[in-house]
Amino acid sequence: MPASSESTVTLPAGVALHARPAATFVKTALRFRSRVTVGADGKLADAKSILAVLALGAQGGSVLQLSAEGEDAPAALDALTSCVSGLIE
Amino acid sequence: MPFGASLGVSNLVGIVLVSHSRELARGLADLASQVAGDGVKVEPAGGGPGGSLGTSGDAVREAIARADSGEGVVVLADLGSSILTVRHLLEGKVNGHVRLVDAPFVEGAVAAAVMSSAGQSLEDVAKAAEDARGASKF
What we know:
CATH topology of chain B: Rossmann fold
Oligomer: heterodimer
Largest interface: A-B, 16 and 23 residues
Structural class of chain B: alpha/beta
CATH class of chain B: Alpha Beta
Number of helices of chain B: 5
Helix content of chain A: 25-40%
CATH superfamily of chain B: Phosphotransferase system, mannose-type IIA component
Shape of chain A: globular
Order of helices and strands of chain B: EHEHEHEHH
Strand content of chain B: 5-15%
Shape of chain B: globular
C-alpha cells in the first residue's frame, strides 16, 4: 500500500549538505523504493540525485523538509532523519 | 535491489574518465571517488604518450580493465577526439558491458560515482551520468 510521509530534520551545525555529506545522504535515500524529496530554503530536490542535493546548497544548522512517497516511505524517512542527525564533515 | 551494496559485499559498476589531460582525468577521478566514498573504482585515462595532451587507446583499455568488477563500466570522455578514441576501442565489442555515455564530464562523473557506490545497476549509473546534463548548479 503506497504511503506518504513527511518530516523535518536539522543539519548539524557546521555540516553543510555538500560533497561527502551529500553523498552519504543520497546513498541512504537510494536504499529505498519510495520517491523521496528534500527541501531547504524554499528549494526542492530529488533526494536520490547527488547533483540536485548539492544544488540545494543547504548550510549547517538549516532545516530540511523530507517527504517520501511509496511503500517504504516511513522507513525511508526514519533512515534519512538518522542519517542527517549523524552527518559529520 | 541495492540493499547490501553499502556493506561493500557486492561488485560495483566501474567508472572510466577519458581526458586529453592526464591531470584533468586524475583530478576528476580523485574528486568523484572522494565524494562517492570507498568501494567504487573510478579510473583515469588521461593524456597521450609521454604525458602530452591527447588520448591513448591503450590507456583507455587498461583503465576499463582496472575498473571492471563484473557489473559493467561507464565511460565518460571530455571532448571530440577522446570520444573517437573510446568508440574505436569499443568497435565490434557492443555487448553493453562497457557503456560510453554522452554526459557532462565533471557532473556526470560525480553523479555516476555516487550511483555506483550505492550499488545501482549499469543502466542506472549510465542514466545518472546522462541526466547530469539537465542539472542546475544552484
